[in-house]
Amino acid sequence: MLAKSLERAADFMGGQGTSIVLISAILLGAILGISLPEAGTILSGQIDYTILLLVFLLLFEVRIQNFLASINRIGFILVA
Questions:
Q1: Given 14, 21, 28, 60, which is the most exposed site by the fewest CB atoms within 10 A?
Q2: Residue 27 binned pLDDT confidence (cut-offs 50, 70, 90)
Q3: Contact (Cβ atoms closer than 8 angstroms) between residue 13 and residue 68
Q4: How far from 70 is each of 7, 35, 60, CA to CA, in Å?
Q5: Average pLDDT score over residue span 40-48
């Protein structure tokens, strides 16, 4: 069941899904910032880690589709 849902998510992200997720994240962040300004103080500690993760994914060209497919191989990831 998990493998099938991860496969569907990977297929979705391979097409227009990346654009939809990006636009949704921008809109959700804007709505959250307007409606709950105190959330900014709570979440501000995670910005450095998020930017570091994004730079890592950009420089190493990790495709979201491949990343989601690799989650299926937990045993290999734990050994690695």
A1: 60
A2: very high
A3: yes
A4: 10, 36, 15
A5: 84
State both tokens at 34: 């307007």
C-alpha to C-alpha distance for 32 and 63, rounded to whole angstroms? 27
pLDDT reported for residue 17: 73
* Tokens of residue 30, six digits: 């804007």
Six-digit token string for 70: 């690799």
Average of per-residue pLDDT across 61-67: 68
Give CA separation, 50 vs 30, 39, 54, 75, in Å.
17, 16, 6, 26
Report helix, strand and coil shares of the chain as percent, to nearest 5.
85, 0, 15
> What is the token pair recorded at 72?
């299926």
Q: What is the pLDDT of residue 65?
A: 67
61 φψ region: left (φ > 0), alpha (ψ -120 to 50), beta (else): left
